[in-house]
Amino acid sequence: MTVIADTATRTHRAGELTTSMAALPAGHPARPRLRDRVIEAWLPLARHLSGRYANRGEPRDDLYQVAVLGLIKAVDRFDPERGVDFAGFAIPTIVGELKRHFRDKTWSVRVPRRLQELRLAITGANSTLTHTLGRSPRIADIAACLGISEDEVIDGLEGARAYNSTSLSVPLGEGGTELGDTLGGEDAGYELADLRMALGPAMAGLAEREQKIISLRFYGNLTQQQIAEQIGVSQMHVSRLLARALTKLRQQLGADGG
Fold it and tell me: What are the structural domains of the chain?
């Protein structure tokens, strides 16, 4: 009872401070200092509301900072002439800020806002139904609770997978391999295939003897001396013919963007 009485007293005093601040005009010199006192007086409310959203994957301190931001917005926007007390105005403002944080800031992969909101609704329904049913709810249970189709529930559950992503630095086993190491890299085979396609027309532009020397050297793996013996010329002549043929090929492939 003492705790409840103390809480009620603090809330009453905080309300009086808020009313006093709101009564001052915007440019009054005492307003900034009084505003700081009002924010400080209502900090327990921010901490209490942020605690409701704990254990959802976000650090408590971060949630508290978000709640304080919502509190400051409520203090700055509060108008007693609307007929609502400050707590009645501040609570939905702070809760709205917390929900917005979960909706917009904690998704590793961006998904449509509709799926983000659906994910939050499914999470809430799942928690409620678990208590009322005494077991984990089925998709049909959640769909009935939210008044949506089972397909929409499945979409929401699939979208929830984007809420957290796995780091590419996560180790796989004890061999030092990381998840990023399993990703595909650039395949040089594609570039090689393009080169081979361009090489055919380029080879056709060479003289018949130049084509034979290129084929014997790079496809037959013969040395220049072996080529010279096969076509009946000197090794030096083969060297000159090979150099000239390669120059022509480079020029032709370069002209084709190879």
Answer: 1-106 (1.20.120.1810), 110-164 (1.10.10.10), 205-255 (1.10.10.10)
